[in-house]
Predict the structure.
Amino acid sequence: DVKVTQSSRYLVKRTGEKVFLECVQDMDHENMFWYRQDPGLGLRLIYFSYDVKMKEKGDIPEGYSVSREKKERFSLILESASTNQTSMYLCASSPRGGLVNTEAFFGQGTRLTVV
Amino acid sequence: QKEVEQNSGPLSVPEGAIASLNCTYSDRVSQSFFWYRQYSGKSPELIMSIYSNGDKEDGRFTAQLNKASQYVSLLIRDSQPSDSATYLCAAYNFNKFYFGSGTKLNVKP
């Protein structure tokens, strides 16, 4: 089974702190993604990466950065946490794929509260 | 127009009935399609993927894809209270996934 593991299930951080969310996948997938999910807003893409050291901005990259130094690990960084970044953060991975076998698999999620 | 659109619901069906969930998509996303189930407070889990026109069945679940009309549907037969969740429709194109906002399904005992 594909396994995507996020480093924390729950996090509480203070405003202004630098926050690191880590994600590791064990299926040698090329693509990795970071989403945030808020009630009524659905899943919103923050950043994604289609290869090591490659990254692309998603729909809401402001206030975030990412790092992908190894294929299996994709980190999300909140440079200076703010209360409006309180959310559920979801990491996902998928093979690059062609026409088939492109499913995304999600980690368990990190519920981040910024106080 | 959003790339993937769903009715937010809630959709309520009695136990044992067929639940029908629908999703439309734009021209910008047309490669492959997925249905995810998400229980409250949990992460989405993949139920079905469908890549070509027609029906695909897996147990109580059937996914339908109609590329000419640009819609994808999910049928759940013999609905159970444990099927109560939010169902997300997703499309994949050029290394990106596009998610609908989800339809909340309530199955009443």
User: Anything to note?
Assistant: Chain A has a mean pLDDT of 93. The CA atoms of residues 83 and 104 of chain A lie 29 Å apart. The longest strand of chain A covers residues 42-51. The two ends of chain A are 36 Å apart (CA to CA).
